Amino acid sequence: MNIDLYCLRQGSGFPLFLLHGNGEDGSYFQNQLEPFSRRYSLFVPDTRGHGRTPRGTAPFTLEQFAEDLRSFMDRQGIEKAHLLGFSDGGNIALLFALKYPERVGKLILNGANLDPKGVKPSVQLPILLGYGLASLISLFDKKAVAKKELLGLMVNQPHIAPQALSTLRMPALVVAGDKDMIKESHTRLIARSLPNGQLCILPGSHFVAHENPQAFNQAVLHFLVE
Fold it and tell me: What is the pLDDT of residue 220?
């Protein structure tokens, strides 16, 4: 079941994991590496079936990705770390924190969602159509299976009750762009459901860490060191 996650490592200090989104890899965080590695020991893994990490045979679910992260931390002897997750990476970080709260120092969720309804309909509808098409094509063409699995994550996951977040006592920062594909009301729901949650809305889209790295990095580092 276990796989070897490809992981970029940089810097020294307390461990900080950067978890990328759906269909991406760790290179998404290229604008965060230098400033964050000045203070922290950075771990930037490619999720199962993404980038340089193999798909393996385990279920292709966010829960499995959270287990992959736990397994990786165990093998590296990392008892506790800060987690910064973007999009599906944020959902993975949240699932990990809910199952292993004692292993999370601080939690940063960027563009995360508790369920598919948190995504704006203008974005979710094309994803639903693409998933339906990929599902149909995958019956005849095995190359479409990977696409179906990736889109399936966004169509079918996650399913986290807002009330569940009340158990998370670690400091948490919830970041989104003011033109994010996640509904602002949903982002605000996540922030207020976390007992020690802070909200940060920055100018930019869902990809604010890439588009507006100066503001994003400043907000994250301020939260981590305060």
Answer: 98
